Amino acid sequence: MNKLLTTLFALSVACATALAQAQTPAPTAPAATPEAAAAASRQAPAGAKSIEAKAAMCIGCHGIPGYQASFPEVHKVPMISGQSAKYIAAALTAYKNGDRKHPTMRSIAEGLSEQDVTDIANWYGSHANGKQLADKPSREPNAQVTALLNKAACASCHGANFSKPIDPSYPKLSGQHADYLFVALKAYKSENNPAVGRNNGVMGAIAKQFSNAELKALSNYMGSLEGELSIKPEPRFR
Ligand code: HEC
Ligand code: HEC
Question: Is there a domain that residue 43 lies in?
Fold first, then answer.
């Protein structure tokens, strides 16, 4: 009888744990902090073999719908599933070498080997969301946004529908979180800030031609388009 009770108890604990795990993506999305990143990275030691293990700490932020970062301002963590593998690798390398200064992503990228970067980039790049996009963007821009897009010929690099860049190391923008696009564009303008900024010759020169209000209008437009990016949710039972 005692044995049965013990078994029942163990079972109910297991159920409660499974339930708690199933509920992990909290409805009130917590803030992404360096501490959370550090805690996440402890779960996935460097040198872990499977791609699931390598990406485990990424999923903690990039795999939770609605997950918010709190720095440099509150915005949604960018979608990386379905982004071009070459661009993901280029971005991770830029965090690693300091061209992108975002402190959390820097410390995460610094912990990745070249092989990790390649494997993780290929994995996220392979997450097609099944959408077949037309060559034209899914929504026409208004007159103001049309003028802004023409001023810097955004489509000439990011593609007519902003999801078919001319080079795989350039990002897809359509459907990306608008608040993230805005933060990214402002980062290209930022100078002499040790914690905020992106050194990129091309986008730096472009972003500096626009006011923040104009960058916001561009971001809202691109974020509203249908795109190939998605959030691959955290597997419930690992
Ligand atoms: C603590 C939360 C957190 C974790 C964990 C995390 N990221 Fe990020 N990631 C972010 C935030 C916030 C940004 C936006 C940074 C910026 O503004 O440049 C970002 C940006 C990126 C970008 C650039 C996206 C773009 O469109 O330019 C890539 C690629 C990326 N992360 C990959 C990863 C990978 C791979 C991992 C796991 C090895 C990971 N991240 C783990 C929060 C996180
Ligand atoms: C000459 C080519 C070129 C043109 C024109 C161009 N871009 Fe870019 N864009 C790039 C490249 C290359 C990157 C990646 C830079 C990096 O590695 O940080 C980029 C990055 C971005 C990002 C960051 C995306 C992310 O996921 O972090 C945004 C947003 C963006 N561009 C928007 C625009 C907008 C809006 C315009 C027009 C006003 C524009 N770009 C014009 C080449 C271009």
Answer: no
Q: Are 177 and 167 in contact (CB under 8 A)?
A: no
Model confidence at 120, pLDDT cuts 50, 70, 90, reads very high
92 lines ligand 2 (CB under 6 A): no
What's the pLDDT score for residue 33? 58
CATH number at 84 reads 1.10.760.10
108 has pLDDT over 60: yes
The residue segments making up the domain with residue 98 are 48-237
pTM of the model: 0.85
Share above pLDDT 70 across residues of the chain, in percent, rounded to a whole number? 77
Task: Using pLDDT thresholds of 50, 70 and 90, give the confidence band for residue 32.
Answer: low
- The CA angle 177-180-181, to the nearest 5 degrees, is 85
Query: Exposed, middle or buried by CB within 10 Å (0-12, 13-18, 19+), for 26?
Result: exposed
- Closest residue by Cα to atom 10, ligand 1, is 77
* Structure confidence at residue 232 (pLDDT): 87
Provide residues with CB under 6 Å of ligand 1: 32, 36-37, 40, 57-58, 60-62, 69, 77-78, 80, 88, 91-92, 100, 102, 104-105, 108, 112, 120, 171, 183-184, 187
Residue from 41, 79, 80, 162 to probe ligand 1 pocket by mutation (most atoms less than 8 Å from CB): 80
Question: Would you say 226 and 135 are in contact if contact means Cβ atoms under 8 Å apart?
Answer: no
